[in-house]
Amino acid sequence: MSRIGRQPITLPDGVSVSIGKTSVEVKGPHGTVTARVHPSMKLIEEEGGKVLRVERPNDSKLHRSMHGLTRSLVAAAVTGVHTPYKKTLEIVGVGYTAKMDGKRLTLAIGFCHPVHFTVPETLTLETPTNQRIVVSGCDKQEVGQFAANIRRVRPPEPYNGKGIRYLDERVIRKAGKSFVSGDK
């Protein structure tokens, strides 16, 4: 039995679930997330709709692999609509800045032109300072992917450490060239 798949999913107050054949729609105070599930996985509501359980039909390799995945996807959707996911990016470099213009993020990061990102409707972006970007939303995958797309524009380089990095990311620095005097 899957250790992750057999764990129950507790629904917090204010979160409701609609179970379909191949999808689960989770509604909460911060939005709605639709999680796709394998059609053979069975979601069961227990304790008056306060607990969800995922069951698999048999112990085939496919069903064993889908059991834990389905539970993880639904649990992430439940967590996201109750408390939104956040990713914080930090910009390091002289003159590197980020600013919001309505629903558009503009990055000035050392290129000859500014880089623009249009923010999807399901996400919220904040720039508390010129060097910090906070991406938040209900869908864990969407928040992570959008933050990764921003980071991909100028990833941190190992010599000076300049670039866009996650707030908790540790960049391993390399030593530059060292010049030795010509005494022989």
Please tell me about this protein's structure:
The N and C termini lie far apart (about 70 Å). It is built from two helices and 13 strands; from the N terminus they run ββββββαββββββαβ. A hairpin with a 2-residue loop joins strand 11 and strand 12. The chain folds into two domains: about 70 residues, Ribosomal protein L6 (Outer Surface Protein A, domain 3), CATH 3.90.930.12; about 80 residues, Ribosomal protein L6 (Outer Surface Protein A, domain 3), CATH 3.90.930. With about 180 residues, the chain is of the alpha+beta class. The chain has a four-stranded antiparallel beta sheet. Strands 1-6-5 form a three-stranded antiparallel beta sheet.
Question: Which helices and strands appear, and what pairs or packs with what?
Answer:
Layout: E1 9-10, E2 16-19, E3 23-28, E4 31-36, E5 42-46, E6 51-55, H1 61-82, E7 85-92, E8 97-100, E9 104-108, E10 115-118, E11 123-129, E12 132-137, H2 140-153, E13 163-166
Antiparallel strand pairs: 1-6, 2-3, 3-4, 5-6, 7-12, 7-13, 8-9, 9-10, 11-12
Describe this protein with a few key phrases.
Outer Surface Protein A, domain 3; alpha+beta; 184 residues; four-stranded antiparallel sheet
> What is the CATH superfamily of the largest domain?
Ribosomal protein L6
Per DSSP, what share of the residues sits in E-state strands of 2 or more residues?
35-45%
Question: What is the averaged pLDDT score?
Answer: 92
Number of helices: 2
Shape field: elongated
Q: How many extended strands?
A: 13
**Annotated CATH topology of the largest domain:** Outer Surface Protein A, domain 3
Please outline the major beta sheet: 4 strands, antiparallel
N-to-C series of helices and strands = EEEEEEHEEEEEEHE
Radius of gyration from the CA trace? 22 Å
Question: What is the domain tally?
Answer: 2
SSE class: alpha+beta
Helix content: 10-25%
- Report the CATH architecture of the largest domain: Alpha-Beta Complex
- Report the top-level CATH class of the largest domain: Alpha Beta
**Assembly annotation:** single chain
Poorly predicted parts: none
Rounded to the nearest angstrom, the distance between the terminal CA atoms is 70 Å
Biggest sheet, spatial arrangement of strands: 11-12-7-13
